[in-house]
């Protein structure tokens, strides 16, 4: 058998966005694989629920996404970058065979794709500028059109960049496309835009707002949301709108606070939406509320559930319009729940203990979902609406896994003393331990170095699978024992657990993490003298915090971290995280925020520390990483700064394949150089490309 390696990322298939065909006979899903060192191919596959093999449904040309069956099931709409441009456009293909046809040629891409109940129209959003609207590029644009790069870039918004891009005046707007008219237009020429209607930013609606989360009610009613407030970028309040397409009337019917990513409506006017209390919102749990347009009443079906709907979780109505399905973090799993929309019963867990459920789709009699478990990175499954029977529909990585030794993580629960707390209470922390493939429990004289991995968020959770499956298995295959846990601040254990790090990210989290490390180091096969630490985002913050507070780690790798809370506050699109978690701003409590920052304590670092960051990470911008790296250099610490061009905050999950591999190999190479068990020289003493299968893209200039 061949051990799992970092470069195997090129061979691993990822699946996402399962969608039931009407009648529950087939499920469409997106199958994504690395195409080369820089790009991916994503195509739509369809798999019968009855058990036959999945088959490719769209051509391998570009990146396909958002498969959506028409209500009658005769057509499949999807978004794709295929063709002459890399702009995402709307395509339509008959489900009984035939060529896909492009229905749009818009400037701003396609998002939030959804069919009307009668199948005559398609709802979507796109990101456009006022000039795009004035020149009708949001309706139809020449394929050769390329927007000019601003020179200079003039910024008026509080939040002016996100993901890997500057917004440059673009706002999200809602559109409806007449399918029959678009098909008629596409028969003779490129889509001319006559089939598209603008729904937002018209009449009395301001054009300089982001209109998000559109969804159909009945065939003539669309609902969507927009931030309100004197400065919407500084607001957590969303206004929800009802848009009557027959009359054009727009009515604001309720408000919510938090982060609205989705609305889900029934055809009789009940709208489900997210609600997060505004006070300390970044730490609080997100509930699902249901507004009844007929009565004006609002209920909270998730009120009795001490779990949050958030962090890659979703919700949707069942086709009967009576039951809501939702996913939440839950003690190291991402699980599926059902609850009556009228809140007449408490939520009931449908499925998911010990697993990681991704996207899901609710059919008439079943639920399709993507599921990752300890022994595979993700496949499409289906279960009955009550979760009584489960069937696996795909095994997309069967060939890859056939000759790979995959270890099952061991679950551990830890009792932690809050020694720094006035109450001196004890609490439980859940964690996992993954051993190398060759580990033999009876060979007690064999010892392995320990890698501690700290999750991001901070209000997120680790599982035994999901996006970290390949990384954990790769490090274990290189001879390391891997430990990860969900310290206080994590989701999935109730609101008290998540809010326990208020105004104290570092000490509280580190107390829990080190308690877990101490516990696993009691095992004879763990080499207590060879401990290493890494983490990304908040995990990068905690890696840096850990090496400023203790010298127990032989080496550290801090990834996409936050190192100075003040600089982070002024450069991120997520400054509300500081306001919510710390109840502070840099001008109100500058000394406090500095003391809570790893950069303030860099003089105490002795641990060799690799700092990794992406050039276009606008969630945790690189300026604070530069500060921490400079501090390490000034104090004589073994360090190196690795920066990835073109990448953003999602490098580890969806970056260019060569960068994903390079990042993982550099982590292992850095640890190897300080592990006596690996007999490898430190990375600083090796040739730049030594041990890196994907090559070295660093500048050849001196560091």
Automatic annotation (TrEMBL):
GO molecular function terms listed in the Swiss-Prot or TrEMBL record: aminopeptidase activity; serine-type endopeptidase activity
Keywords, in A-Z order: Aminopeptidase, Hydrolase, Protease, Serine protease
Any GO BP: proteolysis
Region (Disordered): 130-151, 678-703
Biased amino acid composition, Basic and acidic residues: 130-140, 678-690
Gene3D superfamilies: alpha/beta hydrolase, TolB, C-terminal domain
Origin: domain of life: Archaea
Boundaries of every Peptidase S9 prolyl oligopeptidase catalytic domain copy: 470-676
Family recorded in the similarity comment: Belongs to the peptidase S9C family.
Protein name: Dipeptidyl aminopeptidase/acylaminoacyl peptidase
Organism field: Natronorubrum texcoconense
Organism taxonomic ancestry: Archaea, Methanobacteriati, Methanobacteriota, Stenosarchaea group, Halobacteria
């Amino acid at each position: 058998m061949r051990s799992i390696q970092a470069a195997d990322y090129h061979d691993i298939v990822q699946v996402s966005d399962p969608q039931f065909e009407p009648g529950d006979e087939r499920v469409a899903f997106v199958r994504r694989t690395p195409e080369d060192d820089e790009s991916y191919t994503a195509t739509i596959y369809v798999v019968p629920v009855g058990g036959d093999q999945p088959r490719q449904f769209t051509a391998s040309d570009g990146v396909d996404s958002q498969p959506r069956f028409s209500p009658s099931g005769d057509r499949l709409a999807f978004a794709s970058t295929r063709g002459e441009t890399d702009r995402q456009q709307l395509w339509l293909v008959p489900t009984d065979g035939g060529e896909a046809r492009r229905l749009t040629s818009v400037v701003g891409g396609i998002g939030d794709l959804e069919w009307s109940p009668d199948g005559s129209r398609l709802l979507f959003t796109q990101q456009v500028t006022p000039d795009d609207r004035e020149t009708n590029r949001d309706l139809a644009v020449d394929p050769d059109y390329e927007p000019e790069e601003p020179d200079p870039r003039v910024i008026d918004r509080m939040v002016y960049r996100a993901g890997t891009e500057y917004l440059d005046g673009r706002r999200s707007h809602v559109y409806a496309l007449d399918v029959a008219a678009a098909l008629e237009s596409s028969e003779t020429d490129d889509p001319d835009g006559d089939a598209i209607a603008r729904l937002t930013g018209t009449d009395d609606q301001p054009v300089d707002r982001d209109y998000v989360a559109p969804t159909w009610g009945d065939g003539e009613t669309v609902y969507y949301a927009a931030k309100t407030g004197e400065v919407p970028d500084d607001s957590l309040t969303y206004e929800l709108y009802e848009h009557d397409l027959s009359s054009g009337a727009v009515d604001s019917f309720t408000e919510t606070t938090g982060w609205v990513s989705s609305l889900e409506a029934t055809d009789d006017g009940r709208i489900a939406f997210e609600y997060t209390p505004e006070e300390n919102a970044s730490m609080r749990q997100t509930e699902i509320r249901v507004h009844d347009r007929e009565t004006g009443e609002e209920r909270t079906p998730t009120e009795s559930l001490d779990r949050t709907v958030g962090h890659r979780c979703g919700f949707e109505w069942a086709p009967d319009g009576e039951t809501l399905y939702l996913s939440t973090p839950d003690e190291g799993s991402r699980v599926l729940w059902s609850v009556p929309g009228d809140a007449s019963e408490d939520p009931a867990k449908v499925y998911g203990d010990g697993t990681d459920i991704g996207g899901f789709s609710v059919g008439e009699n079943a639920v399709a979902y993507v599921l990752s478990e300890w022994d595979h990175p993700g496949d499409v499954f289906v279960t009955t609406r009550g979760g009584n029977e489960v069937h696996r529909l795909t095994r997309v990585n069967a060939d890859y896994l056939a000759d790979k030794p995959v270890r099952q993580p061991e679950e551990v629960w830890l009792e932690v003393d809050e020694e720094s707390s006035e109450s001196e209470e004890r609490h439980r922390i859940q964690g996992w331990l993954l051993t190398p493939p060759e580990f033999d429990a009876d060979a007690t004289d064999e010892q392995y170095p320990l890698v501690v991995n700290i999750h991001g968020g901070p209000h997120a959770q680790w599982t035994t699978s999901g996006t970290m499956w390949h990384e954990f298995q790769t490090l274990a295959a290189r001879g390391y024992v891997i430990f990860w846990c969900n310290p206080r601040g994590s989701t999935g254990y109730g609101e008290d657990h998540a809010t326990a790090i208020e105004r104290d990210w570092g000490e509280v989290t580190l107390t829990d993490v080190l308690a877990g490390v101490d516990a696993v180091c009691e095992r004879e096969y763990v080499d207590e003298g060879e401990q290493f630490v890494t983490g990304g985002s908040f995990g990068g913050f905690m890696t840096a915090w850990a090496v400023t507070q203790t010298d127990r780690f032989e080496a550290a790798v801090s990834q996409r971290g936050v190192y100075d809370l003040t600089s982070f506050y002024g450069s991120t699109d997520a400054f509300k995280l500081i306001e919510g978690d710390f109840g502070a701003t840099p001008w109100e409590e500058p000394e406090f925020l500095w003391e809570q920052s790893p950069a303030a304590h860099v003089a105490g670092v002795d641990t060799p520390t690799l700092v990794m960051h992406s050039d276009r990470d606008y969630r945790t911008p690189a300026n604070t990483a530069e500060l921490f790296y400079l501090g390490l250099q000034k104090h004589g610490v073994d360090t190196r700064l690795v920066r990835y061009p073109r990448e953003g905050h999602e490098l580890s999950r969806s970056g260019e394949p060569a960068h994903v591999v390079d990042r993982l190999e550099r982590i292992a190479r850095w640890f190897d150089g300080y592990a006596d068990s690996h007999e490898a020289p430190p990375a600083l003493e090796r040739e730049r490309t030594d041990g890196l299968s994907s090559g070295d893209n660093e500048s050849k200039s001196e560091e």
